[in-house]
């Protein structure tokens, strides 16, 4: 922690002396609030994490494109392993906030899908859900993870979900639509944290939005109707359901890999258990609906 604070204090970006304050909640990066005169910034520290498809050149490009598209705060400074963005005075959403403000949330996600790509410059990563899942499964097998005996079944589930999705549109997606990545400043919503951004099916973001925020069937239909501009049919509902399961499998495998890879002080085992439970319940619903 002291090394990180010293590094932040030493940035030439500041106009004077600063006193970085740790921010809670980061499970991929270490985050700090910095006041520099009248301005406030968030400093995010994190190296490349290839096993998670997190590469900081891609995060920078995504954050700059999201800023230009008007959906994310301004990026003010970047260097390897460190990014400085404007601090937004506002309310960080929880699950209930996302559900209560569903129409504005979906409009923001749809606008990001439409507009961020237009401003993207230079190399950019793909984030094909099923490659991510396969890569995690390979990594867990190499590590001899404590749940290694479950991996063949999880691999079979991933194959079934990919087949159910079928052909799809591709957008430059956020791929991490946790409620805490939505901020409300009282006038508008912001979407932050572009670590996992990459080209993917829009249904992964929509599936993640639904799974991360405990949408019921009516809220899923409202989300799909708002995003696509027409009420969903049964086929679209089924494809969304597949991506809800995929999003929970991805979060579970992410946590399992983080158990053995991450150096951040966080209870990944408990997070694994929580997400595997949500995954199994979503998978049971998916299987029952297809029976």
Characterize the structure shown:
It is a single chain. The chain has 291 residues and is α+β, with helices and mostly antiparallel strands. The protein folds into two domains: 2-86, Phosphorylase Kinase, domain 1, CATH 3.30.200; 91-290, Aminoglycoside phosphotransferase (APH), C-terminal lobe (Aminoglycoside 3'-phosphotransferase, Chain: A, domain 2, Alpha-Beta Complex). It is built from ten helices and ten strands. It has helices at residues 2-9, 56-68, 95-100, 102-119, 129-143, 151-165, 202-212, 217-228, 234-261, 268-290, and strands spanning 21-23, 30-36, 39-45, 75-79, 82-86, 91-92, 171-173, 182-184, 189-191, 198-200. The strands form three sheets. The protein has a five-stranded antiparallel sheet, sandwiched between helices. A three-stranded antiparallel sheet has the order 6-8-9, covered by helices on one side. Strands 7-10 form a two-stranded antiparallel ribbon. α2 packs across α4 and α6 runs antiparallel to α9. The termini are far apart.
Number of strands: 10
Largest beta-sheet characterization: 5 strands, antiparallel
Point out poorly predicted stretches: none
Total helical segments: 10
How would you write the strand order of the largest sheet? 1-2-3-5-4
Corresponding CATH architecture of the largest domain: Alpha-Beta Complex
Helix content: 40-55%
Order of helices and strands: HEEEHEEEHHHHEEEEHHHH
Shape estimate: globular
> How far from one another are the termini?
52 Å
Protein name: Phosphotransferase
InterPro entries: Aminoglycoside_PTrfase (IPR002575), Kinase-like_dom_sf (IPR011009)
Pfam families: APH
Domain Aminoglycoside phosphotransferase: 21-231
């Amino acid at each position: 922690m002291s090394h990180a604070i010293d590094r932040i204090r030493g940035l030439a970006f500041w106009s004077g002396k600063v006193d970085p304050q740790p921010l809670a909640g980061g499970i991929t990066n270490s985050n700090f609030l910095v006041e520099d005169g009248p301005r406030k910034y968030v400093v995010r520290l994190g190296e490349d994490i290839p096993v998670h498809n997190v590469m900081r050149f891609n995060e920078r490009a995504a954050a700059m494109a999201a800023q230009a598209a008007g959906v994310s705060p301004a990026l003010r400074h970047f260097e390897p392993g460190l990014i400085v963005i404007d601090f937004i005075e506002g309310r960080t959403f929880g699950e209930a906030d996302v559900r209560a403000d569903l129409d504005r949330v979906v409009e923001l996600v749809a606008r990001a899908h439409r507009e961020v790509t237009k401003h993207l410059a230079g190399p950019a990563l793909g984030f094909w859900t099923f490659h991510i899942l396969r890569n995690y499964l390979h990594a867990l097998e190499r590590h001899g993870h404590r749940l290694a005996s479950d991996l063949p079944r999880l691999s079979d589930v991933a194959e079934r979900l990919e087949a159910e999705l079928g052909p799809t549109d591709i957008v430059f997606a956020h791929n991490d639509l946790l409620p805490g990545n939505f901020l409300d400043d009282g006038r508008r919503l912001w979407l932050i944290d572009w670590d996992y951004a990459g080209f993917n099916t829009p249904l992964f973001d929509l599936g993640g939005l639904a799974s991360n925020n405990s949408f019921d069937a009516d809220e899923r239909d409202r989300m799909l109707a708002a995003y696509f501009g027409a009420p969903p049919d049964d086929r679209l509902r089924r494809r969304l359901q597949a991506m809800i399961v995929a999003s929970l499998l991805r979060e579970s495998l992410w946590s399992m890999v983080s158990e053995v890879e991450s150096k951040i002080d966080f209870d990944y085992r408990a997070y694994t258990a929580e997400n595997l439970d949500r995954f199994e319940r979503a998978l049971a619903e998916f299987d029952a609906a297809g029976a």
